[in-house]
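re: the backbone from monday

yeah here it is again, tokenized this time
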């Protein structure tokens, strides 16, 4: 079976084109240019790469962007003060604090300090509560991106069995909520699995749609997937590889080479879910501007 490759690159480029047109319309009406800010604490390589990609994406769609770089030894109180400044800056429509944060800083406290109307990552308890109640809100960027991929490829979801591996607040838990809600993509029967799940392979083999966010390189193998399934791989791991110019290769949570031949649809790593997270962030920022006006 030749699977259809679910390209986040392709979908995100389409979304960026739509956002760029919307930005032009806003400007022609005299509404201010959307402004997204990102806070980067310390020098984590992967985080820096992500934040740079976010800044580039802002330029591409005509947003203004601000990068707030802070030292890794910044105190929690000083970081919270920086967040308060962004909350009070009326020119900034939305902002994110790039995770993970240094160990001495409480991520939950930081997340809750962000004004809900600027929470374009969709992690604030208010955003998550609204999502649970199906009220208009900022959806968490990665799960939102995955629903957009399913929509773009017209992947059937109604009545399907969707299995999610991983229960993080960032991906797994919100994903399970979105796939169960009464809309498209959604209306699935959802099983949420995690590190304590017994007989995991039996459960994943029953999945019409398998969304993998467990954070272990090449964890899902061919014997865990049923013929004709849709597999969405959320994982991304930098593995050292001396044979490559970059010095590393990127792997997902799914053993792509052996799983792909069983799938109707499969997302690759890189070029799958990654670009969609950024596209969702831009969509949420545009929504923040629209809600304000």
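seq for it, each position gets an aa:
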């Amino acid at each position: 079976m030749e699977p259809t490759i679910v390209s986040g690159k392709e979908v995100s480029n389409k979304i960026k084109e739509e956002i760029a047109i919307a930005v032009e319309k806003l400007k022609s009406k005299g509404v201010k240019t959307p402004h997204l800010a990102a806070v980067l604490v310390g020098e984590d390589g992967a985080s820096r790469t992500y934040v740079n990609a976010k800044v580039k994406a802002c330029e591409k769609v005509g947003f203004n962007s601000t990068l707030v770089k802070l030292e890794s030894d910044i105190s929690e109180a000083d970081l919270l003060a920086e967040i308060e400044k962004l909350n009070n800056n009326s020119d900034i429509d939305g902002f994110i604090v790039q995770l993970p944060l240094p160990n001495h800083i409480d991520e939950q406290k930081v997340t809750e300090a962000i004004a809900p109307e600027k929470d374009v990552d969709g992690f604030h308890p208010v955003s998550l509560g609204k999502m649970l109640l199906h009220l208009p809100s900022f959806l968490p960027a990665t799960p939102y991106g995955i629903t957009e991929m399913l929509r773009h490829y017209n992947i059937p979801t109604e009545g399907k069995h969707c299995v999610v591996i991983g229960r993080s607040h960032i991906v797994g838990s919100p994903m399970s909520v979105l796939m169960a809600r009464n809309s498209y993509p959604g209306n699935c029967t959802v099983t949420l699995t995690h590190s304590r799940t017994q007989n995991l392979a039996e459960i994943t083999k029953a999945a019409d749609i398998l969304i993998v966010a467990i954070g272990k390189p090449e964890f899902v193998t061919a014997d865990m997937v049923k013929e004709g399934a849709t597999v969405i791989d959320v994982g991304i791991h930098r593995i050292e590889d001396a044979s490559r110019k970059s010095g590393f290769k990127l792997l997902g949570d799914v053993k792509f080479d052996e799983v792909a031949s069983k799938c109707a649809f499969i997302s690759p790593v890189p070029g799958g879910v990654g670009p969609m997270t950024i596209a969702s962030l831009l969509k949420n920022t545009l929504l923040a501007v629209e809600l304000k006006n």
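The mean pLDDT is 95. The chain has two domains: 30-115, 141-274.
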